[in-house]
Amino acid sequence: MKKTILVAALFAAAFSTSAQAPKLPAGTKFKVVTESNNITSMSMMGQDIELSNGNKLYQNFELKSVSGASYLLSTSITRIASSVSAMGNEQSFDSEDASLKSNPMVAEQLKLLNKQIDYTIENNKVVNTASATGSDLLNTLLTQSNGTSDQAKYFLTLPAAAIKPAHQWSVVDNKPGASTESLFVIAEVTDTDISVNVLTNAKITSTMNQSGMEIKQNTQGTIKLKRIYDAKTGLLKSETGTGGLKGTMNVMGQDAPIDLKVTTKSSVVPM
To answer: Residues 209, 218, 104, CA angle at the centre, nearest 5°?
Structure first.
């Protein structure tokens, strides 16, 4: 979906807000389960193809330290499950299936498991990781969710005076393979929850390996998210999202126009 003048105007009208430190203390731990489902419609060599792809990602997190408006998060992927359906063929994968450990076709995905990634957040953006490998894994998390996996989203770190309906701010984030422009608006504040609507314009340029085939994706579009935060702690409780991406996909050297419909859902459980 092409970037619109309306979205650009909204970004220009939004004002930035200086983030504060998370309200929760260092040592806070939580688990996150993220589900994403994509339906891709494409035309290749005169044939219309529809591909359905589902992913489920399990992560553990720890807030390791807090210093002013900067804080250090640590995460590791503990489980990956995925399924693909196309042209009457179905395949599924679950990293907990012991029989897959010797399968070279899923070796790259298995390498992601239980690798600790430490990264620093400042003003709602990832500013660095502890290693180049950690940076690669963060990019993998981002592209697996088609640009919707914001690794800075887990804490709402606004000044108390800013937590009110209609308050808004914007964040631009450019990473290798994925760039996003997001407008955040507080929709509702209650005694227990803070609801935030997010409009994200995403551009994805990625390469992934699926069933032994290299697939290159070049797409852009808009994702709408709703996030619910705990009003007392500022910790994310849940996120749901829908959107669409359009562009091209290169499979076995053949470019094909594609239209992706994306749905995502994340749940957060304190440990």
So the answer is: 0
